[in-house]
Please model this.
Amino acid sequence: MKAALLVGGYGTRLRPLTLTTPKPMLPLINTPFLETKLLHLREHGIREAILSTGYLPTVFDEYFGDGSRLGMKLTHITESKPLGTCGAVKNVEKLLGAEPVIVCNGDILTDLDVRALVDYHRAKGALVTISLAPVEDPTQYGLVPLDEDGRIKEFLEKPSWDQVETNLINAGTYVLDPLVLKKVPRNENYSFERELFPELLEKGKPLYGFPSDCYWLDLGTPEKYLKAHEDILEGRIEVSIKGKEIEPRVFIGKKVRIEKGAKLLSPVVVGDEVTIGADACLGPCVCVGNKVNIGAGSRVEDSVIMNGVTIEAECEIKGSVIGNNSYVGRRTRVSDCSVLGDNVRIGDGNELSRGIRIWPSTVIDSERIKFG
Ligand code: GTP
Model:
């Protein structure tokens, strides 16, 4: 069976991180997210995948090539303009063959039992099967109520509480009979969720839902990007973590120098060639990339620090993301879901908070920003 992965979006809600790296290629516990996703599919017997790219396509090609390193066959197809979720799959129709295919949004972290989804699709004789996940507040989402046999009754967009008859929403993985693409317009922006699926339902076609209580999270925003890290670090979803586990859920890479008095509070992951200065404290819920320097006495918690970052002495980084090769001057505080893009330079004594986002290569002098 083949998979088509939708990885061509701009990832605007995750800017500035996605200005330099497409969302599916952002590191998740020091591995590009899409690698984790492909390995999950491979575990479920899928060896062949088509990457439907658009935005920054060379990043995918340079990292994965033909997929042989992962033991998979990957084909990259790049759109010249965004075709939307369904238009993107229509665009690769010729490569799909006649058998049902798996279609995945490229930004969803899940441990879905893909084999069970496919078996269910076949057993039901469905044209489309949508994986469904329960949510706490159904009024915020598009709901997918089912009949007793699992057939989709309707698509209910952000219902009021008196309309709520299910808490199941579309979880972004589908099994699709390629026949459904026949009437989709070629080279036009077209959506599964807003166009094709409601149209098929209207025509009475067999669309089924596959509810499961698997782990599920889309990495669409900085909050969710941090949450995905937290969930992996806390072990809520099993993802393989590089490095040596020196204490329960404390992983460190090669050539890590931990100076006197420095502490690592579980769960924490530290990459290769990292120096943690005297009396610095990392954790809980921290992921540090490769070639990072953490200055003496600095504290980092609930945060992601990407490759090549320097954090000088006596800083405090809390609930935030620091992009590749950025520099944070002494006594600077970064908190409250702030996001620094790549190659940012923040001088000494700044205080960044309230979800501030700093664009790549920005330079901020010392003592410039303080939130009252
Ligand atoms: P935002 O701009 O923040 O909404 O992100 P996005 O558009 O990148 O992602 P969204 O959550 O809207 O889309 C879900 C998945 O579909 C992501 O993995 C996107 O990369 C992918 N995707 C969205 N639009 C397109 C498209 O037009 N073409 C292709 N090939 N993929 C798309």
About this structure: The pocket of guanosine-5'-triphosphate is lined by residues 6-13, 23-24, 52, 54, 79, 82-85, 88, 105-107, 220 (CB under 6 Å). The chain has a mean pLDDT of 95.
